[in-house]
Amino acid sequence: MIAALLLSFGVIFVAELGDKSQLMAMTYALRYRWWVVLLAITVATTAVHAVSVFFGHFLGLSIPTDVMSILAGLAMLVFGLWTIRGDHLDDDESTKAERVGASVFFAVMSSFFLAELGDKTMLATITLSTNNDWLGVWIGSTIGMVAADALAIAVGSLLGRHLPERIIARGAAALFFGFGAWLLWEGLSDASAVTIIATLSAVVVLLGVGTLYLRHLRRTAATDPADDAAVHSSR
């Protein structure tokens, strides 16, 4: 349980760096009391990760460990590419943050809950819970996300919106690629030749498509200044 807790804390903390929910946390903290925002985030995160662990735990019971390690490694590569791409608040989310009235707690809690559904931190929690202690993953992932968002709230309160997003995104992506390589090594250590070839082919395709997509975003930003804000953290 302790090992699962520490692993989940580290992975989710890294996943949350530069994520959309961190930007939302900073946006809310600039307008409302930090402890209300942090409490609302904690409640929403606990609920989302409880759902993630439930599905991941029962999914993991029916899938061999080596297969799950390979899938987890591929997922970590996706998270790394996703982190390089970066996140931004669209107009609707920014407006929502600005218009919250008296019920700040419930507004922040509901918006974070909805924002995390299908997000990479939720997918990472599901992945981790498939072959690790579910309680440790739940506690560790929840603490990891709350800690990362608390950091965003603190930094946002002190420095406003001026954060080194490029450095944060690239550092987090490098850690994800490291996690991915480690998990793939574990999954392929005793695998058959067919499995190794198929997995390596999937890695090449995944990284190739991801690289082409990131280049497309950069070219779009260079040719259309109006889109620059949407991909600013991917440069």
Automatic annotation (TrEMBL):
One CC-aspect GO term: membrane
Instruction: Mention one GO molecular function.
Output: metal ion transmembrane transporter activity
The record's listing under InterPro entries reads: GDT1-like
Q: How does it sit in the membrane?
A: Multi-pass membrane protein
Q: Where in the cell is it found?
A: Membrane
Q: Which UniProt keywords apply?
A: Membrane, Transmembrane, Transmembrane helix
Residues passing through the membrane, by range: 34-55, 67-84, 137-160, 167-185, 191-214
Q: Family membership, please give it.
A: Belongs to the GDT1 family.
**Annotated protein name in UniProt:** GDT1 family protein
UniProt source species: Gordonia aquimaris
